[in-house]
TrEMBL record:
InterPro entries: Kinase-like_dom_sf, Prot_kinase_dom, Protein_kinase_ATP_BS, RBK1/2/STUNTED, Ser-Thr/Tyr_kinase_cat_dom, Ser/Thr_kinase_AS. Residues 348-362 have a biased composition (Acidic residues). ATP binds at K94. It comes from Dendrobium nobile. This is Protein kinase domain-containing protein. It comes from the Eukaryota. The keyword Electron transport does not apply. The lineage of its organism: Eukaryota, Viridiplantae, Streptophyta, Embryophyta, Tracheophyta. Residues 341-375 are annotated as: Disordered. Residues 66-344 form the Protein kinase domain. Keywords: ATP-binding, Kinase, Nucleotide-binding, Serine/threonine-protein kinase, Transferase. The keyword Nucleotide-binding applies.
């Protein structure tokens, strides 16, 4: 405890300097850069961050002493509490929990801070600030409507409407495109899935939980990471087998996400049957209407279904080279040309089968960072 106190005191000095927020953001970015490359060219000028440092007293009052009744999510890296600030704003307080050492915990904290501290997009969860007193906390806007997963798989509520499912796919595509191309440095999320896509009050999808996110330097085509972490059933083949990470890692997971939205099925069901193994035959023979969540009946748009299934079939290709970028996905989802010739693969590529996901008992399941920031 003494060591943690000393390290926290040094963090407090760091954050209390005159240029605290700017330095914190740059330091977080630097931590991420050191984790990837020693000498990276200067990026775009850093915009002034809009977040601030909260006191522990504020967090304690907001969460009623981190009461268990306010615990709304727990993942491999953190636990999340619902809270309400003195001004009435409802927040999600993410408290980092998993780390071998206090030093590693601080490194993880600064790395995630360096990611979320400068991200600003309607389809990414809004970051409000942090708290470094007594523990390490990240504070976000609270999503009262919960995650896409909780809305999609809640057996006690009416099925998620097709219009909302399509809106979720479009918004998530925009958010991912922003992370890959619109940020100062390329961000690979590494854990895109329905429980990490939250819904705002007006049902706008927002990408959350950057606990596994990685920077990708501009001059690098990819990077190799270890250990393999994420959610089984959503992991791209090259990442699962070799630890290779780039934008196409997220593209693959987005393809699985689309199939989950369409079908209402989880990436891996209770019988260890993968969504990909179930969906591929219907995608291959064109019987895409058999993919639709049966709870929807005929209440869906067939043209939108054709577009989403076409995109999904491209995103889940085993060879990353033949997957689209998120810029191309966004173009397709917003009405771009779905010419089969444009996306045709060589015959030898078509013959390559995706590895068998059905027997998960023989595989080690990677760790997920998921810790929902919604209700």
């Amino acid at each position: 405890m003494k060591q943690l106190f000393l390290r926290s005191r040094s963090l407090r000095r760091f954050f209390s300097s005159p240029s605290s927020r700017r330095c914190a953001e740059e330091n977080g970015s630097a931590a991420a850069r050191r984790n990837s490359v020693e000498h990276e060219p200067e990026a775009k000028p850093v915009r002034k961050p809009t977040w601030r440092c909260f006191s522990y007293e504020e967090m304690h009052r907001a969460t009623n002493g981190f009461h268990q009744d306010n615990l709304v999510g727990r993942g491999g890296y953190a636990e999340v509490y619902r809270g309400e600030l003195d001004d009435g704003r409802v927040i999600a307080v993410k408290r980092l929990t998993r780390a071998v050492t206090d030093e590693q915990k601080e490194k993880d904290f600064l790395t995630e801070l360096g990611t979320v501290g400068h991200v600003s997009h309607p389809n990414v969860t809004a970051f409000l600030g942090c708290c470094i007193d007594k523990d390490l906390h990240l504070i976000f806007e609270f999503s009262s409507l919960g995650s896409v997963s909780s809305n999609l798989h809640n057996a006690n509520s009416s099925p998620m409407a097709w219009k909302l499912r399509y809106k979720t796919a479009v918004g998530t595509a925009r958010g991912l495109h922003y992370l890959h191309k619109g940020c100062q440095r390329r961000i690979i999320h590494r854990d895109i899935k329905s429980s990490n896509i939250l819904l705002s009050a007006n049902f706008e999808p927002q990408i959350s939980d950057f606990g596994l996110a990685k920077w990708l330097p501009s001059e690098w085509t990819h990077r190799a990471v270890a250990p393999i972490e994420g959610t089984f059933g959503c992991l791209a083949p090259e990442y699962f087998t070799h630890g290779i990470v780039d934008e196409k890692t997220d593209v693959f997971a987005f393809g699985v996400f689309i199939l989950e939205i369409i079908s209402g099925r989880k990436p891996v069901d209770g019988s260890h049957k993968s969504l990909l193994s179930w969906a591929r035959p219907y995608l291959n023979d064109g019987t895409i209407q058999l993919l639709i969540d049966t709870r929807l009946g005929e209440d869906y748009d067939i043209d939108q279904l054709k577009r989403l299934t076409f995109i999904a079939s491209l995103c889940i290709r085993a060879n990353a080279t033949w997957r689209p970028s998120m810029a191309e996905v966004l173009n397709l989802i917003e009405g771009g040309d779905m010419s089969s010739e444009r996306w045709k693969m060589p015959e030898e590529e078509k013959e390559q089968e995706f590895w068998d996901l059905d027997d998960l008992d023989d595989c080690g399941t990677p760790t997920s960072s998921s810790s929902s920031m919604g209700s």
